[in-house]
Each structure stands twice: as C-alpha cells, then as structure tokens.
Amino acid sequence: MSEEREYEVVVVGGGPAGLTAALYTTRLGHDTAVVNRGGGRAAMMQDTHNVIGITEDTSGNELLQTAIEQIKGYGADYHRDFVTDAERLDDGRIRLEAGDITAVTDRVVLATGFSDGHPDPPVPRTGRGLHYCLHCDAYMFVDESVYVMGHGDSTAHVAMIMLNFTDDVDVLLDGDEPTWSDETDELVRAHPVDIVEEEVTGVENGDDGWLEALEFEDGTRREYRGGFAMYGSDYNTDLAEQLGVELNDDGTVAVDDHGATSADGVYAVGDMVPGHNQIPVAMGQGAKAGIDIHYDLRTYPMSAEEIEAQGGIDADDVPAVSDDIRASAEAHREDGGESASADD
Asked: Among residues of the chain, what percentage have pLDDT more than 90?
C-alpha cells in the first residue's frame, strides 16, 4: 500500500521545466515534491546545447542530476515513481496516485513532456547521427552532409531550413509516399534538396560511434554526418485529461502566460505546452509557474478582513513556511550554499 503525504505543490515530471518549477516553489517556502518516472527528452541528450553557462560536454543526465540535488538541498522531496491517476477531491485539492506514494496537494505542475515519433530501424544512434531538435543541433552540421527523414510538411520545411547551414541536404522518404501538401511539394522541389525515395537498409558508423553513411534498398550508399527525424510528437496528457484540462487542437495543453491551465490549481510547463521545445524556454516556463503559484499560495500579506477574522497576527504565526523548509534553509546557510544561487 502506498504512503499518503500532503504537499502544497507536486510537480509531475523531472525535466528542466518541472525541476525549475520545483526549485522556485521550494525556495519560495512551499512544501514541494517532484514525482519523476525518469527518461524524457533531456535525459537522452549526450551533449547539452544552447544553455548558457553549461558546457557541451555536460550530458542531459548530468544536468538533471545536478538539478535534482539542488532542489533536494533546498528541501523538496524527490520520488522516482510514475503517477498513474489524478483526481479532484471534494475540498478542491488534488490526489495523485503513484506506485509507492499517494500525494495530496494544493497545486499540481504537469511537466510530462512528449515522446518523439521514431523512424523504423535501421537508424543511426540517437545523438550520434539521429537528432530531433533543429534549434539545438543545426549548428553541428554547418558544411556537412545532412538528411531529414520523414514524409510530412515538417520534413520538407526542416530540409529547406537546413540549407541555411549546408549545401548538402537530402530528404529521406524511407519507402513512404510524401504526405506533404502540393504547395510544399512545389516549394521543396524548387530548393536544392535531393528527395530519396528508397528504404534505408543499413547504417555505417565510424569508430567514434558517429554516423558515416546510410545504405539504401537500391544498393546505393550516401555519406552523412547526421540528420533529423520528423515523425511527429505524442504528448503525454493522460493526467491532464483526467483533471479536465483543456487541450489545443495539436494535442498540447492550453495554458496562460504563467502556465495555468483551464483547471483550477493545475499548471503545465515544458514540452507539453505550445512553444519552442528548448531547455532555456522550459526553465523560463517553470520559473513563471513557480512564481505564480507562490503569489497564489503565500500567507502574507493578509487582507484586513483576513486579519480580523483570525483575531490578529502575533509572533507565533510567523514565519509562514513549514518547519521542514525552515530546517532545510538553516542547513543550506550553514553549508554556505546560499552564495552559489544565481538569483541571490
């Protein structure tokens, strides 16, 4: 039987967006838990790109593990588990069921992301010739041979975008018929892009693990440094739908500028909401959600009516943070940790 715990904030998902939200709510004095099943897009990164202050030799797992240790150091609970069910209680709070824990909370931050559609094998190794983020990785392929694999409009458009970086771009249909529009077909064929119809039958990698070439059903061989797979996204919105959250037509979660959804007390951040799927963007979304939650949950300042209703405020009523947060903050100060925080 799982253990039931109460929190002010529970973040579901342990990527950059969710961990940043937890960082803010914890440091702003709210009892916070992160429930993370593991994996995810950021965890798959062999190198980190486009995150200022983080060098490229930092893997996604290293980045996330550092963040986890940070939030735990500030007093957040971290659970490696999978949330399967979410329901609204009669008092307005939300119950989340995972394998080893049941969490009852005032606010939920959903940061469950999406799963990229993958091409059928044979394919290059992810991160060593097979990539999913144009904005992250296009720089790596300046003046290199590049493929874009897929058959929809996004495939053709990414191929044309890659001409900004290299003059050697192929679209690989991998045996599929194009599903892009007639307008897109006319446009992509007007650009210097080769469209290869044959199925991929083999992959050649170098000693360093990077892609060197792909082999095709007609016996041809084409050399590539790497490329991008464009097979769409599957948004992980099961919990959002259980809580009655409104979705957009493209499957993303509809949110306001601070990540609040159509359901009271439910926020969504990161790759499951509209916008660029980038770590700095996700961090910004997590920060805005965390601050918005703080404004909503913080005890002070009270209104004059609230003060009168509770008979005034005395020294025993402050500070409003829990004993656990106070203990963590004191330990953090004693360790000298406060000097390492970027926002202090």
From this structure: 85
Nearest-angstrom CA–CA distance, 252 and 315: 46
pLDDT higher than 90, residue 41: no
130-229 maps to CATH 3.50.50.60: yes
Q: Convert the pLDDT of each residue in 165-216 to its tens digit.
A: 999 999 999 999 999 999 999 999 999 999 999 999 999 999 999 999 999 9
State the Cα–Cα distance between residues 341 and 295, nearest whole angstrom. Answer: 21
CATH class of the structural domain 3-115+233-298? alpha beta
Task: Tell me how far apart the alpha carbons of residues 192 and 167 are, in angstroms, rounded to a whole number.
Answer: 8
Cα separation, 172 vs 181, whole angstroms: 17
Domain edges within the chain? 3-115+233-298, 130-229
